[in-house]
Amino acid sequence: MKILYVYNFTYPDYQSDTVYHGLVDSGFEVYESHYPQYMIFGYDFKKENVYKDLSRSIYGGMLGTAFTLYGKLNYTPRVESSSVINDKIRSKFYDYIIYGCVYTHEGMLRRQCLDYFDEVIKYYPKDKIHFIDGSDNSWNFAHSSGISPYGTVWKSELENIGAANPICFGIPESQLIQENPIKEKVFADIIPGRKETYVYSDEESYYKDYAISHYGITWKKGQWNCMRHLEILANKCIPYFPDIVDCPPFVMVDFPKEIFREINKYARRGEIHPEYNSINEYLFTYLKNNLTTKQIVKKIINY
Questions:
Q1: Which of 75-84's residues contact partners 24+ apart within 8 Å by CB, and which partners?
Q2: Is 80 exceeded by the pLDDT of residue 105?
């Protein structure tokens, strides 16, 4: 299956990059409108200074590190010129067109990328065009820009189910722990938002802290979807999610929120749930079956 992925890749976006990783990892024949620099194996965020135009760096499991999703794809992208892409759109060479980022925020580096849109809607029906909106804002950018009638909109921070389809971040299969870790403490060290607890500078030690802990603390920050939730689950640790009761019904729809609510009863007291081991195994299997980048892509393209 041939996919044209339209995104400028000037700045990371978890939702867009989840879908892109999932497409490539699933073995689709993906063609890019721009080079996906930070997705390719070996990319060094600190060296390349991907955040140079921003006052702060906000991506990655830790502040400014970009663990988990980035620099993982060991393959050669099929980046094509504008003229070639236009010709292929007209000949309907691609099976699907996916726009990776349809939003932008004032005052931030421009993310929105709607290249080739006028040509695409001439030659492709609505069911072959998909728009991804991973904005922290619940505002429906696809609707406001007038593109929503021309394709299927997928939005991570969704308030009204009629306005778009809900979607979540995903984690690469390669990041799932392979062994059963021995638990050494109740809570992992990291407390979201408290920079003094961000003590891990490499992915291995960051993951290990979750693996040896019964609970990993997590909550809403920029938006409800967060890679940290997945990183905790991927290391056979259970999220302690104290504000999960406030999560809107159409957000994080692929997460087992009821289980998180049950776990909260014990975690808030620093107690281990009496069925901890069985719940942990269930959640890990659930993650593999629902929340990898491949599984998120299956929701967009049924194959």
A1: 75/24, 75/40, 77/30, 77/32, 77/35, 77/36, 77/40, 78/29, 78/30, 78/31, 78/32, 79/31, 79/32, 79/33, 79/34, 79/35, 80/31, 80/32, 80/33, 82/115, 82/116
A2: no
